């Protein structure tokens, strides 16, 4: 009966959707005259515009509005929430961690992806080697976090207890003592960044590899005729040719990184000074019962992501042209 | 340009489909309540209704929901009221969304008295009818009545209860090694030292719990606060009429530190002091089974964490003793519970609400939970019907006239403290932060 009811709801939803489409088509059929094209365009755009207005624009404005109020949204506090993000010790940790994430993970993932793409380019095992690095992309952030949680897992340094975490087992094999990797700041943030790099390096590699293959053979051949090889070829020919792609890859990973929430929440829950803006926004809004501060963090996230997205779009346009 | 016919056909087909679905949905929900009045004497007072429904919303999910639903089968049969039970893991956030969105359930089960207070302040909760108030006054102790009373008015009734002041141990190990169950805090310390002198870490502790990591520290501190400063100071501290970082709290946290941050006492079978922070709370008591530690402080619900085949009984592999009080003169008990609050005052809602506050329901619930793991602080509950030894012990402690019950403090504090700063700072405290820095940070996080 539960399932029947759910299926009923699903069918009703689909029915409603079909109904809207039907109405639009019906109306569209009635348009004629000189300005029909324009009206038709507006008619087809209307559902999307309406959807965006209701689901994106209004909530965004509402969030900005709520960021100016106190924890329960009852009293206007001006910019107090913004001030506390930049003054309380705990929130400053959050900003510091976010900065570490945004600086490290796009650079490292892109660098690793680029070097890997160049190294395996035209080698005998190219597709196999690429598949290996690309595989993590197919794993969700939460799945990857659980995998890496096991890598960092700690078992006490006691007789008869064996390590189940890869990292600690390597350490023990080399004669060291096992460490509780995830509880010491700021090292733990770096260890979380590794997960992001592991996932994103495959993306960087794939896109950059495609870009490298796009470089016209003539250019490479003429450079080789001029005696340019190895590092020189990479620096003077490959890198300048794929620069737009590198920028797109860097900015795309930067956006993903700014929004990172899953990795932090799954691996440490933001404890041990590992929280980042996206995680703190969730914690403040839904656990700490502080709607104002939560909204402020969301606005901050938006403001941080916005320039990167704008830059990304401009690059993409130039690339396309 | 005449494209209408196919579209018309399509829309007609759609409207027929929609109508069929609606019919199907209606047919589905028209319940078939089995009639029959045998054994309905106890239910006469609630009256009889026809085609009335009451929705009950909670965070109780499988497998605990089944005994819950079964516990009011008789009520449904005798009164004709149909109870629509809904349990969801995301209850805590979703119920707020539903209430704010103007779509509250008829009744909801909350685990935090703080939340009840907050809801009353928003004006959405409905004051309990006289029949419920009468039951609450009749069946619950004064401290429990206090959790549902806001500004002198009763806004609901307690439901279930649990005891948190427990120390888990192995009766077999105690017998073999000649340890005795401590009766005072001093004896607890002496016992710990004795075990430590034998070369074993006495305690095993773990505060890991995903993004809720740190909450077991709050329970430890609350237990110590109750014991060292008494219930009055505890209430003041919870209600923030004395500061979070005052001398009472400092004394309590330092006393906890003598256990949790003492390298000679922790962390048996789990590592050094810092491993307290990285061990999951579910795993933390298990080293007792391997004889790697002897004591583990955790609430009655921990009974479910012991592997299958472990004998949990007064002379079995595992059992619990009451976390001792300072001395013989007092017996503070830290615990938790559930509360039913109404958002509607329709007669059928009142009837069901009254039933849930009665001794009849408490005993029905015990009967429908044969595996144990559920008790109530309802004094009408027949404790002799409980089957599980831990339930029996919990009920005995709750019903002991010497007991002074206090609700888990962090559940009563504002969210910014109770479910955030207290956990986070408690965790930092375990990994090395000083008591003063910890308490100062929590005090600073208290909403102004």
Automatic annotation (TrEMBL), chain A:
It is found in: Cell membrane. It is a multi-pass membrane protein. One of its GO terms (biological process) is transmembrane transport. The keyword Ligase does not apply. Signal peptide: none annotated. Residues 95-312 form the ABC transmembrane type-1 domain. It comes from the Bacteria. Keywords: Cell membrane, Membrane, Transmembrane, Transmembrane helix, Transport. Gene3D superfamilies: MetI-like. PANTHER family: BLL4140 PROTEIN (PTHR43227), DIACETYLCHITOBIOSE UPTAKE SYSTEM PERMEASE PROTEIN DASB (PTHR43227:SF8). Belongs to the binding-protein-dependent transport system permease family. This is ABC transporter. It comes from Dactylosporangium siamense.
UniProtKB/TrEMBL annotation, chain B:
Keywords: Signal, Transport. The keyword Transport applies. InterPro entries: Bact_solute-bd_prot1. It comes from the Bacteria. The keyword Transport applies. Residues 1-24 form the signal peptide. Belongs to the bacterial solute-binding protein 1 family. This is Alpha-glucoside ABC transporter substrate-binding protein. It comes from Dactylosporangium siamense.
């Amino acid at each position: 009966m539960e399932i029947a009811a759910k299926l009923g709801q699903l069918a009703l939803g689909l029915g409603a959707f079909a109904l809207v489409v039907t109405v639009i088509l019906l109306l569209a059929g009635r348009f004629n005259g000189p300005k029909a094209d324009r009206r038709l365009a507006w008619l087809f755009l209307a559902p999307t515009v309406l959807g965006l207005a209701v689901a994106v624009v209004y909530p965004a404005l509402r969030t900005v509005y709520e960021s100016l109020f106190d924890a329960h949204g009852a009293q206007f506090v001006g910019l107090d929430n913004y001030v506390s993000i930049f003054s309380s010790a705990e929130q400053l940790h959050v900003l510091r961690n976010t900065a570490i994430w945004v600086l490290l993970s796009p650079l490292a993932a892109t660098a690793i992806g680029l070097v890997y793409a160049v190294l395996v380019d035209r080698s005998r095992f190219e597709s196999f080697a690429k598949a290996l690095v690309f595989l993590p992309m197919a794993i969700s952030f939460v799945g990857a976090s659980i995998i890496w949680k096991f890598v960092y897992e700690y078992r006490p340094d006691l007789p008869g207890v064996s390590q189940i975490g890869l990292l600690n087992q390597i350490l023990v094999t080399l004669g060291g003592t096992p460490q509780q990797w995830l509880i010491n700041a700021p090292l733990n943030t770096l260890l979380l960044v590794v997960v992001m790099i592991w996932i994103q390096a495959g993306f960087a590699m794939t896109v950059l590899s495609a870009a490298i293959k796009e470089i016209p053979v003539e250019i490479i051949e003429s450079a080789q005729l001029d005696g340019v090889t190895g590092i020189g070829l990479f620096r003077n020919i490959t890198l300048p040719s794929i620069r737009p792609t590198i920028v797109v890859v860097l900015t795309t990973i930067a956006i993903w990184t700014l929004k990172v929430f899953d990795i932090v929440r799954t691996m440490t829950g933001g404890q041990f000074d590992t929280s980042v803006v996206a995680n703190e926004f969730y914690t403040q809004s839904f656990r700490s019962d502080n709607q104002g501060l939560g909204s402020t963090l969301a606005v901050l996230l938006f403001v941080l992501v916005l320039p990167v997205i704008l830059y990304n779009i401009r690059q993409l346009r130039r690339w396309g042209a | 340009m005449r494209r209408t016919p196919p579209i018309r056909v399509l829309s007609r087909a759609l409207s027929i489909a929609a109508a069929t679905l609606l019919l199907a949905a209606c047919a589905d929900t028209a319940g078939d309540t089995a009639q029959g009045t045998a054994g309905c004497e106890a239910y006469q007072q609630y009256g009889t209704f026809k085609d009335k429904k009451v929705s009950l919303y909670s965070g109780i999910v499988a497998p605990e929901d089944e005994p819950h639903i079964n516990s009011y089968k008789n009520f449904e049969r005798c009164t004709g009221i149909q109870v629509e039970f809904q349990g969801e893991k995301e209850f805590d956030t979703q119920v707020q969304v539903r209430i704010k969105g103007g779509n509250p359930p008829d009744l909801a089960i909350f685990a935090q008295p703080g939340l009840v207070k907050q809801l009353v302040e928003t004006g959405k909760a409905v004051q309990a009818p006289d029949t419920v108030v009468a039951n609450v006054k009749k069946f619950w102790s004064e401290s429990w009545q206090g959790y549902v009373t806001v500004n002198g008015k009763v806004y609901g009734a307690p439901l279930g209860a649990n005891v948190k002041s427990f120390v888990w141990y192995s009766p077999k190990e105690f017998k073999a090694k000649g340890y005795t169950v401590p009766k005072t805090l001093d004896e607890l310390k002496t016992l710990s030292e004795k075990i430590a002198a034998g070369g074993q870490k006495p305690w095993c502790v773990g505060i890991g719990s995903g993004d809720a990591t740190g909450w077991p520290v709050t329970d430890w501190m609350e237990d110590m606060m109750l014991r060292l400063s008494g219930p009055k100071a505890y209430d003041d501290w919870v209600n923030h009429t004395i500061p979070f970082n005052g001398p009472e709290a400092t004394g309590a946290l330092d006393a906890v530190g003598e256990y949790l941050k003492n390298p000679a006492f922790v962390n048996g079978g789990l590592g050094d002091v810092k491993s307290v922070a990285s061990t999951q709370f579910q795993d933390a008591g298990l080293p007792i089974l391997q004889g790697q530690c002897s004591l583990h402080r955790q609430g009655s619900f921990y009974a479910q964490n012991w592997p299958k085949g472990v004998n949990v009984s007064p002379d079995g592999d595992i059992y619990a003793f009451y976390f001792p009080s300072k001395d013989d003169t007092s017996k503070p008990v830290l615990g938790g519970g559930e509360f039913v609050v109404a958002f509607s005052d329709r007669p059928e809602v009142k009837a069901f609400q009254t039933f849930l506050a009665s001794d009849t329901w408490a005993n029905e619930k015990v009967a429908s939970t044969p595996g144990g793991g559920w008790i109530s602080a309802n004094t009408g509950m027949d404790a002799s019907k409980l089957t599980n030894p831990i339930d029996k012990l919990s009920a005995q402690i709750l019903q002991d006239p010497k007991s002074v019950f206090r609700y888990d403090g962090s559940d009563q504090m504002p969210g910014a403290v109770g479910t955030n700063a207290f956990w986070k700072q408690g965790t930092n405290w375990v990994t090395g932060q000083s008591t003063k820095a910890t308490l100062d940070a929590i005090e600073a996080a208290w909403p102004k």
